[in-house]
Amino acid sequence: MDTKKLMVIAPSPHFRDKVTTTSVMRDVVIALLPALYASAYHFGTRALLLAAVCVISCVLFEALYNIVVGRKQTIGDLSAVVTGLLLAFNLPPMIPIYIAVVGCFVAIVIAKQLFGGIGQNFANPAILGRVVLLVSYSQAMTTWYIPHPAGRVVELVSGATPLGTLTSGGTLNLSYADMFLGIGKGGCIGEGCGLAIIIGFAYLLIRRIITPTIPVAFVATSMFFSLVLGQDPIAHLLTGGLLLGAVFMATDYSTSPVTEKGKLIFGIGCGFLTVIIRIFGSYPEGVSFAILLMNIVAPHIDRLTKTKAFGGVYDEK
Amino acid sequence: MNKLKILINGLIKENPVLVLVLGTCPTLATSTSVKNAVGMGLAATFVLVGSNIVISLLKKIIPDKVRIPCYIVVIATFVTIVSMLLQAFVEPIYNALGIFLPLIVVNCIILGRAEMFASKNSVFDSMLDGVGMGLGFTLALFLMSSLREIIGSGTWLGIQLYSGIQPMSILTLAPGGFFVFGCLVALVNYITNGKSRKKQKKGCAGCPSAAVCANAEKGECNA
After folding, report:
1. Fewest 10 Å CB contacts: which of A79, B9, B96, B199?
2. Sign of the dihedral through C-alpha A96, A98, A104, A107
3. For residue B77, what are the contacts with CB-CB under 8 A and spacing of at least 6?
4. Phi, psi of A274 (to 5 degrees)
5. Which CATH number does the domain housing residue A85 bear?
6. Is residue B146 within 8 Å of B41, Cβ to Cβ?
């Protein structure tokens, strides 16, 4: 009937966009590709193997969980691919493969699916996976390898990360440019090349996947506090997982605040905690713990920074 | 109530740890190894049976207003007995349990059963309830500690189970304890859902803590 077409009554939202979870996740995967390329450049095929194992096992765990509990299959939204890539980026290159698989299990099944799947998780799955591995297998998770200084590694040499040297009071023998490009810098496979991460960041901004608030607040705060505490702020910026965490992991939709003011608070909190853990904590790296802690308070930040609806009044209580 | 039903009530349907969520602190603290957990479970069972019997015997003598201190005195007596027995005969377990052994005095399961069951039922029923609840506590501890010890340290009752793969040591730490606890509670909920939960009434009638809740008579939680 024609009358049906003339008047359609429906609840909001009335306007629809073409953006879907899948398209957002696809953009994040594209933004991660430069860092994947850089990790393969520095750490060779081992990095690609690790990334492939993590992506495949994350997708498999999600598919299996959905089959076992009889839930709608959700692997098509690509979020498990993003989790797998991010988790792989947070692992040292020579970690045993089975430990990486355990990390994927924790990330997908425990951190994400048991809490109700995508959008319901209280913490970033990749971060939780990494933290559980770090606490469980602290030796394997902190055995670092230095990529060959000329790039195109054939063999990896074990050694300390620049951040470890930095926070334990040693002096670095790397130039800022080397640190920025990840040349001769030990660490997790995805965090080495700052340039690649910044390319990904620019892509996410252009595609409007994220707003710059959290990454900028995160990085600026941690540089400020490392300066206040008498350490080299640029070295703190370019070593460890600060850039990777600030751009790709602190900005996760379901575990960061929605409002811009909330995002600012979230980023500042992450930056502050990162520096505190790096300098005073027993672990050399604090980014993942800082993001995890701020993930937990994100709902409260949202509640405190609730915006006023147009024409509405604040609750007097 | 059917005698057998009282006995098996504590095992799954009203498991003190996994359904009533009582005694969480000793559960999380002592379930890092099977040996400690079973020692803890049996010690608590002994105290529970003893205190249930004595409190049930004294239920008409104890004045209502000072019943909690009276229960504590009875429970503390049995805890002292059990801790002296453990120290005399199985000193390793006594040392491993440490502070958690004297803390059985304030274990919510024991006080909870005294309040919920022993003060209202006959001596024999109270003893059966103590045995059932104690075994339920031991069973929950046994399950939790088995999972935590096998995955977290690669051993079971101290026997090396596998080598070559590093055990996931977070399970022997506090966060791992909460993981396993949450998963077991979810499992028990899943198992009992089909049988008992459907018939259960919502609100205070279906609430396991209704007997000790001050607001149960008013029929609301936040009165």
Report:
1. B199
2. negative
3. none
4. -55, -50
5. 1.10.3430
6. no
Q: Which residues contact B180 (CB under 8 A, 6 or more apart)?
A: B31, B144, B147, B148, B171
CB-nearest to A102 from B168, B173, B175 is B168
Locate the chain A residue with the closest alpha carbon to B176. Answer: A132
Residue A129 lies in a domain: yes
**Is A135–B175 a contact, with Cβ atoms under 8 angstroms apart?**
yes
Structure tokens at B37: 């957990």
Q: How many residues does chain A have?
A: 317
Q: Is residue A81 part of a domain?
A: yes
How many domains would you assign to chain A? Answer: 1
What count of other Cβ atoms lies within 10 Å of the Cβ of residue A294?
A: 27
**Residue reference for tokens 């005399």:** B88
Tokens 């801790």 belong to residue = B83
Give the whole-angstrom CA distance, residue A260 versus residue A40.
Answer: 35
Measured between beta carbons, the chain A residues lying within 8 angstroms of B170 are 132, 135-136
Reduced 3-state DSSP string for B51-106: HHHHHHHCCCCCCHHHHHHHHHHHHHHHHHHHHHHHHHHCHHHHHHHHHHCHHHHH
The reply to whether A312 falls in a domain is no
Residues near B1 by Cβ (< 8 Å), separated by ≥ 6? B125
Given an 8 Å threshold on Cβ–Cβ distance, is A136 in contact with B179?
no
Tell me the Ramachandran region of residue B124: left when phi exceeds 0, alpha when psi lies from -120 to 50, beta otherwise: alpha
Place of tokens 């299959």: A73
B168 close contact with A: CB closer than 8 A: yes
Note whether B28 and B217 are within 8 A (CB): no
Full pLDDT tens readout for chain B, 223 residues: 578 888 888 887 888 888 878 888 888 888 888 988 998 899 999 999 999 999 999 988 888 888 889 999 999 999 999 999 999 998 888 888 888 888 888 888 888 888 888 888 888 999 999 999 999 999 999 999 999 999 888 888 878 877 778 888 888 888 889 989 988 888 888 887 645 444 455 566 556 666 666 666 665 555 4
Q: How far off is chain A from B152, nearest CA to CA, in Å? A: 9
Residue A4: inside a domain: no
Q: A229: domain range?
A: 21-303
Query: Which chain A positions have a beta carbon within 8 Å of B171's beta carbon?
Result: 136
Residues with Cβ within 8 Å of A203's Cβ and at least 6 positions away in sequence, in order, are A27, A30, A31
